[in-house]
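re: ur question from earlier - yeah i can do the single chain one, its not a big deal. heres the input i used so u can compare w yours
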Amino acid sequence: MLPSAGQKKNRRDKLVSESSDFPRRAPLMPANESPLRDENIGKRVKLRRLQLGLSQESLARALGVTFEQVQKYETGNDRIEAARLQQIADILKVPVLFFFGGALSGAPDRAGDCNVLDFLDTAYALRLVQAFKRIKGRHIRRSIVELVEQVAESAAARGG
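and the output i got, formated as tokens:
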């Protein structure tokens, strides 16, 4: 005679309770405490979108959502589901791991990349990127980068 469902459950509970190494339940994590914040993923979406010169509206069209939804993703107000994140990664031509701290190549990020993300979230950065995009000459772009690097080195040497 086969054991009933109740007998199977009792037997399983007994086995589980006899093993002290086996957790009875998964640990509870408060909903507002994610090990990786939604806003960090959103910042990386924004970073890559800006690198490619895409507007929120163009990304939204490609995703089949409104640009307001893309804004919510980028600010971390709305969590990006796994399938949607894969779709975003495909559109932005990066591996999904990029959104979790990986570099564009899939290699680990440098420590300063968080500062880059914070900087790109400012109005100055957006103005700088938009102006830089309008410059077509490769040599002019290189000269601007070298000028900014020299100014930064000079400022660092003076302590400001």
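The CA atoms of residues 15 and 145 lie 66 Å apart. not sure if urs matches, ping me
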